[in-house]
Design brief:
The protein is mainly α. Helix content is 76%, strand content 0%. It is elongated. The chain starts with a helix and ends in a 5-residue tail after the last helix.
Amino acid sequence: MPRQAGDTRRRIVEAAYYLFYRRGFARVGVDEIAARARITKRTLYAHFRSKDDLLAAALHGQGDFDLARLQVIARHFPPAVGPMLDSFFGQLAEWAATPGWSGSGFTRVVVELADLPGHPARAIARRAKNVTEHWLTDQLASRHVAGPGQCAKEIMVLMEGAMILMLMHGDRSYADVAARAARRLVEPARASGTRRKSPARP
C-alpha cells in the first residue's frame, strides 16, 4: 500500500475509533467519521466497504494498543500476588478517572451489537478479552497461584463488573471493592497450591 494511502487509512481508523468509543457505533455516521479524518466520504469508501468493516478495523487497532497497555501495566506490578491485584485494580481506577472515560470499548460494542451474534466486531472483541484473560493467567501462574486459569476468569468478571459500575455510578471505589474480592479469590488458591507442593508425610 502506498504511504499516502496508508496514512489516510490510519486517519480514518483513528477517527472512527475515537467517535465510536465516545458516542457508540449506532450514533456515529460515516459523514462524521470522514469529517474528523479530513477526507471525503467517497475517499472513506475507497478504503472501507462499509461502516461495519470500519468498526472491525478500528477494533483490530485497539486490540494491538490494549496488548501494549497490558505490558505497561505489568511493569508496575509488585512481586506478591495481593499487592499485584491492588495495583491492577488501582490502575483501572486511574484509567476511569481520565476525562471522557467510557469504560471498555470492546464491552460497549458487544452490548450494542447484542442482537447481531455474527457481527465480525464481536469476534474481535472476544479475542481481545481472551488476550487479557490469558495475560492475567500468566501473571497469576508466575506468582504460584493454584488454578491460575480459573482465578483469571473470576478476576475478569470482577474487572468487567467494576468498570460497568464505575461508569454507571461515577464511583471509583468499585475498583477497590473488586481488588478486595480478588484477593479473597486467590488466597485459598495459594493455600491449596502450597499444600499440593508439600512433601508427603511418611
